[in-house]
Amino acid sequence: MSSSSAPSPRPERSRSRSGARSAAVTAVITAALAAGLLAVPQSASAAEIRIHDIQGTTRLSPLAGKTVTDVPGVVTAVRAFGSARGFWVQDPRPDRDPATSEAIFVFTGSSTPKVAVGDAVEVSGTVTEYYPGGENAGLQSVTELTRATWTVRASGQPLPAAFRLTDATIPTRYAPETADGSSIEGLRLQPHRYALDRYEALEGMRVVVHNAPVVGATSTHNELWVTAEPYRGRTARGGVLYDSYRHQNPGRVKVASLIPFAERPFPVANVNDRLAGVTAGPLDYDQFGGYEIQATELGTLVDGGLRPERTRPQHDRELAVATYNVENLSPKTPQAKFDRLAGALVHNLASPDVVALEEVQDDNGPTNDSVVSADATLRQLTEAIKQAGGPAYAWRQIDPVDDQDGGQPGGNIRNAFLYNPERVSFTDTPGGDATTPVRVLNRGGQPTLSASPGRIDPANEAWQASRKPLVGEFVFRGKPVFVVANHFNSKGGDQGLDSRFQPPRRSSEVQRIAQAKAVNAFVKDVVAIKPRASVVVAGDLNDFAFSPAVNALTDGGVLTDLVQHLPKRERYGYVYNGNSQVLDHILTSKGLRRAEYDVVHINAEFADQASDHDPQVVRIRP
Questions:
Q1: Whose CA is closest to 31, among 57, 66, 55, 60?
Q2: For the segment 115-124, what is each residue's pLDDT rounded down to a tens digit?
Q3: What's the whole-model pTM score?
Q4: Most distant CA atoms of the chain, gap in Å
């Protein structure tokens, strides 16, 4: 599993809070006050404090840690489930400053608040800055009232008008930046200039999108992504393309629902579907993906007609090499997933001759013991492929050292090859194991491997707690072809696009660059012996085509990243937080001039997935 931000499995959706500020928040606020960036109302009586005074003009409340009393507003929504219950209250008498939000969430913990939408209330409580995921996650804070009490003064009051999110109201620039990537919390919000500032200035307020295109499919947590900019940056199949660190598609917003499931089941949507009509509710902030409409009104789902793709079969003289991240596959995985993966390999990918697999787990999956073999996993997959009408694939892989390759604890994920022995042969050369590096040998002017399969430089610190590249020598129509299966380290620990630190730090990138350099050095060893050697580097690189890691992999021109040769609107195979992006790649050496490449869209755009990655295939003529 991988992503552009946080690829680790999602924890249970709960929010724990303490009423008091942390020392870190106190320090930030103190520094901002000293710099004159925050202002506290002088001698303000309780009657004079309104919500916009609490929210202030920056990301942190000037009243954080203080107790406020009898703050007026109208209840606009109630969250009556989970451990983060509470209600949103919005002031029907806004000020004229677009930087100040007019709404706030009143947190009641696991207690269901005894209020109703339309109640006019006066709320007292402690002003608290809550960091979803904890302060170290680097996300935005949410200004809230905790330890709250309230009085209902009237019921059935009209709700404040919802702010409409459109191309015209969301700036194209995503976020303000600092020179050193430090926090932007103390900066005055500029909602007419930056999208993140616009959303922050609307924190808790009612917002609305009309006829919103779906750009991120419904998740298992009953959430989806839409865009409020229906015509900007669209992919060929209806998503929004993430193709630069400078273009984050600012109109993306997540949608969850406050409507009881029995009353209105959450829509099961794919990319290119549409929520027709009105989707509206308070704007929240979520640790798993930025700003989110907590919908009290949900548009009607309209099917956009997106269907899984199929690639064409390879011709007799074409060698088809594919890559597929099968997402933590083990015998403990339901058989239905094996069947779906098998059906996709046979029917959607047209039974490739060689398949580089990523995230193949050991024979007892996440059970954390000394088992490292994956023969049972691969046997179950290849049997399912035969049952789906595919070839009798053989496999090659190397067992890792227990618990040394990262991934799900106990799973011992690794890269593996499937190959069709009726079309291609594998050159078995003994000596490959988890810790022995494969070397490129010169035999009569022809490159060959010291071990096949072998692992590239496994002792290199670049591979610490990460999957080691697996290389194998295949022979197709009498010609050798070297294939390298990769799964670079994840983006876990990177700061998200919506981080309070701008520009966000990509700390995991350092390791991927080192990994890319190691693979690049191996390919250079091969082509140094034979410049026209046939080399295919494939797999989940966990990085973008424009990233420094991929640039390091192609250094010296020894490899071509084939995704760059697709039409721009087709350069994606993974959807994260509503952004269609590239994480998986197939690269070829100069000896493979005629390469036909296809990203086969069968997973990432759909609510019903066998994996979160789309597979890819290249057809070559060595």
A1: 60
A2: 999 999 999 9
A3: 0.92
A4: 91
